[in-house]
Amino acid sequence: MFSAHAERVDLCLFDARGRRELERITLPEYTDQVWHGYLPEARPGQLYGYRVYGPYDPQRGHRFNHNKLLLDPYAKLLFGQIRWSDVHYGYRIGAPREDLSFDRRDNSSGMPKCVVVDTAFTWGDDRRLQHRWHESIVYELHVRGFTMQNEAVAPAYRGTFAGLGSAPMIEYLSNLGITAVELLPIHAFIDERTLVEKRLRNYWGYNSIGFFAPEQRYMATRDLGEFKTMIKNLHEARIEVILDVVYNHTAEGNERGPTLSFRGIDNKSYYKLPAGSERNTMDYTGCGNSLNLEHPRVLQMVLDSLRYWVQEMHVDGFRFDLATTLARGVNDYSRSSNFLAAIGQDPLLARVKLIAEPWDLGEGGYQVGNFPPGWSEWNDQYRDTVRRFWQGTDGTVGALASRLTGSSEIFAREGRRPRASVNFVTAHDGFTLMDLVSYNEKHNETNIEDNRDGVNHNYSWNCGVEGPTDDPAVRNLRVQQRRNFMTTLLLSQGLPMLLGGDELGNSQRGNNNAYCQDNPVGWVDWHNPEADGDLLNFTRSLIRLRLEHPVFRRPRFFHGKSMPNMQVKDITWMRVDGGEMTAEDWYHGGRRTLGLLLGGDPGDEFVSLLGYPERDDSFLLLLNAHDEVVPYILPKADHRIHWERLIETTWPQPALPARLFRAGEPFDVQPRSMVVLIARDAS
Question: Of residues 10, 99, 140, 357, which has the active-site annotation?
C-alpha cells in the first residue's frame, strides 16, 4: 500500500461474513513509499481491510485515523455495503471544526470488506475488437436499469452483468445495429448518506470508492468471471464495451466527509488541497474533492486501473467523466498535463477508444475541442443546436450545418477527424428522447430536492401539452419529432451516441436528473404504451442506412470540392429554389429549413485500401422545422436526374412506397419533418 506520510500500516483479516476481525498484521516493510509484506496463507475469498497510523493534523493536510477500517485502493472485489453512521468520520460529528476533534470509535462493523480474488478465466481467442471509429454506433446504457424490466432476461439475472451478457440482450443490441455499448460507471461506488436517509440510492454510480472492483449490486454471483463472460459474449456479437470511468473524485467528499479509503491512507497525496489551506479540499467536480493526478503515485494508480480493465477484463475503451479535472495542473487545464501525456505515450492505453467529457465545474473547465489528437469528445454543442433547431428556434441553421458535418470549426485541427465529435441528442444526464418532446419543464420532485436539482435549460418542447396525453395530434407530433431527432443524429458526420431505451419510447416522467432513481423511473420500460409509431424499426433502418453508405460516416471532413469524374461537390447547401446557398442566405434570421446535397464521396483518398467503394450514392437531406409546408425544388445530382424518397419522418413506417421524383420538380417538405432522398438513374 502506497502512503508517503503514514507511520504504520496494519492488514486486518476478517471472517467469511465480514463481521469479526480475526487477525491484525503489521506490514513489516516500507520501500519507496510503499508498505508491504507477504502473507502466504491468503486464499481467494479472504476478506480484509487496512488500518493506517499517522498524524491527525488537518491543518497540514493529514487525516490519519487508525480506528477506521480502510478499503484497499487496489482491491479487485468488495463484499458488503456501507452501513452509515457517525462512526465512519475521522472526527466527531457535531464538532465546530473537524480538525478540533478526533473520533476513536471503530467503524469496521459497518464497512465493506476487500476480497482476495481468483483471476483465472478461459478467454479463448477473445480480444479487443478495434472497430474503426467512423464505423461505430455507440449505445449508452445502465447495466442495472437496462435489464431490470426486461421479461426476456431470467429474473435472477436482471440488473446484472449476467443479464446484459445474456442471449436476449445481445440479440436485441445486434439486431438494432449497435457496435459499442458505453456502460455507466461499474466501478465500486457508495450510496451517499444523504440519499440513504431519504430512502434513495445512487443509481448512476458517479461516486467511486474502488477503481479496480466491479460494483457488487451488478453481480448475480461473487465471481469476476461473470463480468468477463459478459465481455466475451458481447465481443462474440462484434459489440465493443466502453466503460464510463470516474477518476476525477471519490466518494469521500469534502474535508467534512467520511474516512473510507484514500483520506485515511494519505489525504495529502491523494487529494488536491489548496496551498496555505490544506485543511480543505479543492473541488472542481461539485462532489467535494478532486483526485491529485499530479502526484506520481496517484497517477500510477489510475493508469494501473485502466490497464487492468483492458488487459485483465478485455474492455475496449473508456469515457472519462469530467475529464478536464484529470488534466488540471496546480489549477488550470493543460493539454501537456501528466495524465494526458501518460495516456498518449502508453503503448496499450493509447490504442483503445478514449472519450472525454471535456468539462468540469472549475474556472476554465469548458474544454470542448481542446483535447489532444487521438481523443474523441462529448459534443454538447451538437446536442443543444439540434434540440434548438427542432424546437423551432430562429437563427440556428448556420450552427446546425456545422453540427451535421462534424463540427469542423471545433475539431478540425492537428489532423483530427470528424470522429472527434461524439454526437448525441440525449444522454443519461437530462431528458430521455420521449421526455424531450413531452415536457417543457423538469419534474424532479421524486429526488426530494424541491425540484431544484437538474438543469433548467433543456431546449425541450412538449408539442402543446405537458406530460402524457391522449390527444392524437399531440402524440403523432411527438412521434414525428422523435423521428426527426433520430434521423438527424444517425445521418450526421461524427460518432453517434444513442441513449439506451430512446428507441423504445422510454420515459423518466419528466425527471432530467434521475441519478438517485433506482426504480422504474430510472429503469428502461420495455413495454411503454407511448412507444407508438414503431421507432424501434425506424431506428434500426437508420443505423442500417448509415452503415451501408460511407457518405454518412466519412473519415475526413468535407472540403467543398468535386471528386474526379463527378459533377457535384462532396457537399452542397441547397436553397428551396434548388440553387446553392450564398453567403447572404446564411444570415436570414428567420430561416428554419436546411437542405444539403451529399455527393457520393467516401472522403478518403485510400478508399480501395480501406475496402470502400470508390464512390457512394448521392443523397439529399431536407430539414423543415417550420409549422408550414416548405416546397423544395429538387436539384440534379451528377448525371442522375431522379430522386427516390427513402425516409420521411411524417411516415409511420421505416419503409416508404417506392416512388421517383424528377429533378426540377417541387417536393413538399411537411411541417416539422425531415426527408432523405437518394439519387437514382431514370431506369
Answer: 357
